Amino acid sequence: MLDGGGPEDEQQLLGSAFAGLAAGVLLLDAGGRIVAVNPWAEGLLGRAAAMMVGADAHELLHRDPGGAPVPRSRCRLLAVAAQGRPAWGESDAFLAGDGRALPVRWSAAPIMSGGRTVGLAVLFADVAGSSAPITREAARVSLLEGLTERLTLVGAITEVLSETLDVEEAVDRLGPLLIPELADWVAVDLRTPEGDIRRVAVLGLAGRDFALEAWRGPLPPPTALSRSALVRVLHGAEPVVLGVREMAEPPDAPLAAVQTGFLRALGATSAAVVPLTSSRETTGAITAVRTGAGRPFTEGELALLADIGHRAGVAIDNARLFGEQRDIATAMQHNLLTELPRDPDMRLAARYQPAPAGSRVGGDWYDAFRLSDGATALVIGDVIGHDLQAAAWMAQLRNFLRALAWDRHEAPASVMARLDDAMASLTDVPMATVILAYVEKPLAAGPWRLRWTSAGHPPPLLLPAAATPSGGGARYLEAGQGLVLGAGGDPERHDGTEDLPAGSTLLLFTDGLVEIPGTDLGAGLERLRRHAAHVAGYPLEEFCDQILRIVPSGSTDDTALLALRIPPD
Questions:
Q1: Angstrom distances, CA of residue 566 to CA of 5, 462, 503, 560
Q2: Which of 18, 11, 7 is nearest to 298 (CA)?
Q3: H runs (alpha helix) in 292-431
């Protein structure tokens, strides 16, 4: 399959680009297998397309003038994919379905996407029966290059638009792909979630054209009875090309008047209006404009723009669905991150930061609550995943852990073991890492005490009051480690214990803070240790803000952290 679309997309594009072409066309993938065949090729070869698609074109068709197979090492057709350069032949034969060696002239050109060859377009004709033999120029310039350019453009648009889940970015990426290859100007109109129409971009050679800002913004509603091409397309009509005469017609609705004024301001000589469509709805429209004389949009170009409009519409719809999911998950996440308990004898602070890229929300959380025996429970956790499902799983696990920790006066390791059993039996959470810690006040003169257990989570970081800016004194608490929740249970879970010196700071965090793309976890932990020691003297709230500054650039993970400061003597 060619990059950038499935067989149905390729067949549709092939038909629209070469409707009625009196020559055979084969589309091959980079390995030389047949992807699509036009009807003229079926007739010339006496073979049904269904019998050719998927076959190796060289083995099935390519023969020398005498009808003998051509060795693969001498096949100039296959060399097109390997070398990325066009080729042609005038003395070869293709094997017809009845066993005849059909003398053909052929021309082949590579189809490029992302700087690499993803397929071949092969144009051929019967030497004996063709009244207009395929010459090198006619094949390569007027027909074959047209097909490969269109396929390459559609592949590039699909690739570029699939890389973003932001509506504004998707719109901005359309301009450089359509201008100047297909248009001099492009306007993009979108339906808002409330059903209104808004012109979100006017794109020219320099990208967004701020000299035409007046044409951007809210548009009048699309009156159903209007004859305007834009109005009809927004209501689901087929794409349409407008010439000078059609654009000069008096507008019959407010939206038609805006569009007419816009086209006149650009000096349009030809315009194509195509819908932005997805499987759910028509999300908007693209207006492509040409301003030069003698360059009207053709039916083939309109079909190509319609295909692009569909692909862009799907990308925009996906971005909107993602945005809705992100907003729901973000609201869920923040509503579940409850207010920290207040204690005059110690300070608590916490932060949650969505990922700067990717799904933005996920399964990271912090929690702190008072236990019935007077101790304070601290929790930091990370459920696998980075989406709305992960946020829902996080909510389940958080509530279970709260209930189990309150239910009995038992050690953190025992609570974690019961949570692991409950998670497997009563939830659909696949895996999670968690630290559960109890902070116990001294009964008399003596140190505060920390008891904790870890289910595969990064260890807590303890920063003494006298930590040096170079990291001296700051250390990770490695005790109490056990298996990740959901890994089949851990019969050896145990607690770690540590005295918390006066004025010290304890930091619990999720791995989004220390995972740096391209490096190991140890490097990220050391980076955090040194940075935390450097800012340990800040007030606790400011300390947390400073810690978040080292979230790795380009991270696709959310981050949670919880900090505790023991009072000085």
A1: 59, 11, 5, 20
A2: 18
A3: 299-336, 388-407, 412-426
53 contacts 37 by C-beta, under 8 angstroms: yes
Q: Which two tokens stand for residue 187?
A: 């306007």
Q: Residue 496's CB: how many other CB atoms inside 10 A?
A: 20
Q: DSSP string of 253-319? A: SHHHHHHHHHHHHHT-SEEEEEEEE-SS-EEEEEEEEE-STT-PPPHHHHHHHHHHHHHHHHHHHHH
Tell me what pLDDT residue 532 has: 95
534-536-538 Cα angle (round to 5):
105
Q: How far apart are the first and last CA of the chain?
A: 71
pTM for this predicted structure? 0.53
DSSP 3-34: TTS-HHHHHHHHHHHSTT-SSEEEEEETTSBE
Distance, in Å, from the CA atom of 27 to the CA atom of 7, rounded to the nearest integer, reads 10
| 351: Cα separation from own chain's centroid | 27
Q: Which of 477, 475, 490, 435 is nearest to 457 (CA)?
A: 435
pLDDT digits (tens, 9 = 90+) for 50-59: 999 999 999 9
Tell me the CA distances in angstroms from 101 to 27, 43, 69, 92, one per residue in order: 21, 14, 10, 9
Q: Is 16 left (phi over 0), alpha (psi -120 to 50) or beta?
A: alpha
CA pair distance 552, 563, nearest whole angstrom: 20
Beta bridge partners of 382: 364, 433
251 and 227 Cβ atoms separated by less than 8 Å = no
Among 71-75, 163-167, 322-326, 437-441, the minimum mean pLDDT is found in: 163-167
Residue whose token pair is 């010196």: 501
Residues in Cβ contact with 458 at an 8 Å cutoff, skipping those fewer than 6 apart: 433, 509, 510, 511, 514, 521, 525
